[in-house]
C-alpha cells in the first residue's frame, strides 16, 4: 500500500492511498468462494455452486462491498502509518476502481491541532467567596412566599408589586401596530416584563381609570420595525390586586419538599439549599474564569468537523430543553449560526483541557468522584439509593468522572496562576457570570 499526504490548508489533509490490485482480487475471490459454499440456488446442491456462476451473477455487488471495506480499512491503516489524528470522518474520492488495476482513492479530512500550552503563571484569576447573612436568608424566604402568593382585588391605587388587569392598544404616529393590543392582560408592576415607562406609568392608577402612556421602544428591541420608535399606549385598568403572602407553616414548608413543622427547622433547610447553590455558583464562576483565560492564552486552530458535531449536540439539547422529550422538531431546522460561537468555544476548551490532562497525566480521583456523587445525592429523599444507582450505571459514572477531571484541571491551573481572593455579597456571588459582565458593561457605558 502506497500513501502520500498533502497539507491543503490549516488542519486539512489530503491523503492519496494506492492499494495493489492483488489484494482486491484476493478479497473478491474469498467472498465468491464463501458465497459458493453458503448460497442456495435452484439446480445446484448446497455448497456445490460453481464459483464462476456466483461471480457472473453477484460479482459486481461482491466487488462493491469489498471495495468499500478495503477503502475503510486502508484509510485507518494509512493514518496510523503516517501518525495522523483525524478529527471527524474523511471525504473519499475514488480515483481508480477498475478491475485488474490498483485501487486508488483520495481521503480529505482534518486533523487535531498540535497544542503547546502557554505558561499559565501569567494568568490573574479572581476567586470570590461569600457568606450567607440572616438578611439573605430572610429575603430568600420572602421570595419563596411570593412564589406561592395569592392575589386579592383591592379598592386603592396601584403600587409597585401589585398586579393590574388591563386592556391596551399601542399606536405609532397615530397608527395601531401589530402585536400592540391585548385585553384582560395581567401585569405585575415592577416585573419589567413591558418596555420601560409602561409599568411605572400605571403606578397610582385605579380600577376603571383610562390612561395614555407615552413610551419609547428600546434600540435593542426584538422587533426590527419597533426599535427606537416612540409609541402611545391607550390603557384601561380593569382591576388592581395585591399579593397576600402565605403563612410560614407546615403546609407552606411541604410545598418545597421540606418536612418541618417549625420555622427554625425550615430556615435551616433553606439555608442548606442556599449554601449548596452558593458553593456551585462560586465554583462555576471560578471554572469559567480559568477556562476563559486558558482560551485567551492559547490560540489554536479548530477542526470544522468537531465544531459541526458540537453544533448538532447543541441543536438537540435546545430541542429537548424547549420542546420536551417528545418534541416533533427537527434539530437541523435550527439555524447553525445560533450555536456556532458557543460550539467553537466548547471545542477549544475541550481540546485545551484534554492537553492539560495528557501532558500532566491527570486522572480522575476516585475519592473526589464519590464525594461528588454524595453531594448530588443529598438533594434526594433517599441518598443511599441514588449513590448505589450512580455507582452501578457506568454511563453516569463516566459523566461524573469527566466533571471531576475538569475540577482537577482547574485546581492544577490555579496552582500556578496569580489568584486574587475577593469577598462579595451572597446576591452578587449567585449571579451568573454573564449577567455580571452585562451589568458591568452597562455601568461603564453610563
Task: Please give a structural write-up.
- The chain is an alpha+beta fold and 446 residues long.
- It has 3 domains: 2-110, 2-Layer Sandwich (Alpha-Beta Plaits), CATH 3.30.70.1050; 120-131 and 252-445, Trigger factor, domain 2, CATH 1.10.3120; 150-244, Chitinase A, domain 3 (Roll), CATH 3.10.50.40.
- 46% of the residues lie in helices and 21% in strands.
- The chain contains 12 helices and 11 strands.
- The strands form 3 sheets. Strands 6, 7, 8, 9 and 10 form a 5-stranded antiparallel β-sheet that branches. Strands 1-2-4-3 form a 4-stranded antiparallel β-sheet. Strands 5-11 form a two-stranded parallel ribbon.
- A hairpin with a 6-residue loop joins strand 3 and strand 4 (103-110).
- Helix 6 crosses helix 7 (340-359).
- The protein is elongated, with a radius of gyration of 33 Å.
- The N and C termini lie far apart (68 Å).
- Residues 1-17 have a biased composition (Polar residues).
- Residues 161-249 form the PPIase FKBP-type domain.
- One of its GO terms (cellular component) is cytoplasm.
- Residues 1-22 are annotated as: Disordered.
- It comes from Marinobacterium mangrovicola.
- Regions with little confidence, pLDDT below 50 for 5+ residues: none
What is the domain total for the residues?
Answer: 3
Which CATH architecture of the largest domain is right? Orthogonal Bundle
What structural class results from the helix and strand content?
alpha+beta
Query: Distance between the terminal alpha carbons, to the nearest Å?
Result: 68 Å
How many helix segments? 12
What overall geometry do the principal axes of the alpha carbons give? elongated
Regarding CATH, which class of the largest domain?
Mainly Alpha
CATH-assigned fold name of the largest domain: Trigger factor, domain 2
Helical residue percent band: 40-55%
Mean pLDDT: 90
In percent, how much strand structure appears in the residues?
15-25%
Measured on Cα atoms, how large is the radius of gyration? 33 Å
Number of strands: 11
Element-level helix/strand string: EEHHEEEHEEEEEHHHHHHHEHH
Largest sheet: 5 strands, antiparallel
Keywords: Cell cycle, Cell division, Chaperone, Coiled coil, Cytoplasm, Isomerase, Rotamase
Family: Belongs to the FKBP-type PPIase family. Tig subfamily.
Protein name: Trigger factor
EC number: 5.2.1.8
